[in-house]
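To: structure subgroup
Subject: Chain for Friday's discussion

All,

I'm putting the inputs and outputs inline so they're searchable in the archive.
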Amino acid sequence: MGVMRGLRFVVLAAGTLGGLYGAAYGLLTNQARRAERIIGPPVAPPFLADGVYRPDGSGPVPPAEQENALRFAMFGDSMAAGLGVDGPDQLPSVVLARGLAEEADRPVRLDTYAVVGAATRDLPAQVEQALLAPPNVAVIIIGANDVTTLTTVPDAVAGLERVIRTLQEAGCGVVVGTCPDLGVIRPIAQPLKSIARAWSLLLARAQRKAVARVGGIPVALADLLAPEFLARPREFFSSDQFHPSAVGYDAACSVLLPALCTVAGVWTGGPLPKLPHRSALAESRRPTTKFIARVNQRFGRPVRQLAP
């Protein structure tokens, strides 16, 4: 199921959590349908440019030509797959592979397993395929479809932890780009925007803590990138107004690459610079105590207020 089609499930959740009836519920449903019409389904599958990238920036070349390459795998959803770019050289996986090859001064083999529409429950199948030839390092970008399919935060986080441990047991270092802020998507109107934003930030916060707990490196995409997407939407979004453009993906890669170089053992001269967990703008949009109380009541599990 695509993210936008899943907006109607977010409306259903809002009705369940907030006791919405009649006109309010109808308003949210109409907003979801309007956003889906504006964005529409993907017009084409994402590009694929797997292969080996050399430190000089050339590639991809067939893997057989570089047997000593560092193996890099990309897992996750449409953002991990790079849906929305205009050409294969703009794919985030390619940008990261080239950056890693340059920093490591070593060829990097890119293998992409990300699937458009994937949620956390779909990651084990992606990882199972990758473990036929285990990667050395991996980036996972996941979460948006967990929000729109009403996967509970505890279930999504538990599934992510299991996948990370599976990769680590195979000797793979893991970086996770946490759930993006769905509230930056312009076709989603208020009040549906606030509901999508609150749920995605709750999930991102829980993902970040879980990834760090099991020894991966979390990168808070929502908190680090939302201000740029809000300030420069025409540059940062692709023509569908939902997926990032090449500029948006470059911004994501700029915060993912340092973590990727760290888990690859390329940057060993000191600790990874500490990135802020929440920007000032993200902090101002922290989900309210009332919303969190309704989440707790609906799912019967404690979800703590987001801390700075």
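Points worth raising on Friday:
Residues 1-5, 7-32, 299-308 have pLDDT under 50 and may be disordered.
The chain is about 50% helix and 10% strand.

D.
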